[in-house]
What we know:
Strands 1-3-2-4-5 form a five-stranded mixed sheet, with helices on both faces. The protein is α+β, with helices and mostly antiparallel strands. The two termini are 38 Å apart. The N terminus is likely disordered. Helix content is 63%, strand content 9%.
Amino acid sequence: xxxxxxxxxxxxxxxFAGATAASSAQEFSKTxxxxxxxxxxxxxxxxxxxxxxxxAELQKRQAIAEEAKHKAAVEKNADVIFKxxxxxxVGNQNGDVNFVEFFDYNCGYCKKAMSDMLDLMKxxxxxxxxxxxxxxxxxxxxxxxxxxxxxxxxxxxxxxxLDFHQKLLGGRGQADKARAMAxxxxxxxxxxxxxxxxxxxxxxxxxxxxxxxxxxxxxxxxPSYVIGKNVVVGAVGLEGLSKKISEARCGKATC
Length: 255
């Protein structure tokens, strides 16, 4: 109703301008524009709460548009997001809900997100978890991601990778090649093969693929997720992730 009251004086102003103008279509005169602008300014000054309502509506529409963009990008890239052999599947290989995480080994929020992911894997055996390296926080992150990909190349089951992942992401200090190599050795990786695989074109191809997907979906930070058909940006916590998984599985917050 407030919006109608807001539009009413504008309608009057427009009608007044139309009545004083020539019958054929033409632009408002400078005087008419000035009168309309004054009416709008006076009305908004007297009813400033309308600006909050308009801002809230704008944010709502932007969120809806962003969600539609994300879903379109997920649909376009579904095969690569969910089925690429360059993604590491650490959950149920045949799970009924895809849970894809883009992460950076130097992301503080990703450390907490890892704990949430492990809790979800324990409580939800039907969850298919896919990890994708997305090193956006500098050279150290890039080095760590390259080592991670080399670990994946010698570990088709994902078990050794997950052990490495937890050791590196859960450790203290800045992740870089040295720390990543130490974590890989501790996880039981074949270090000679690892050094060889680091120079493989597969490492570069994996990172290019992950960055291309992220760009298409408008991702610019970590952690970010694709859960079912929905994109989730940021460390939303265990409860938030559980809700998105349920929505993907049965269409509501709790199945």
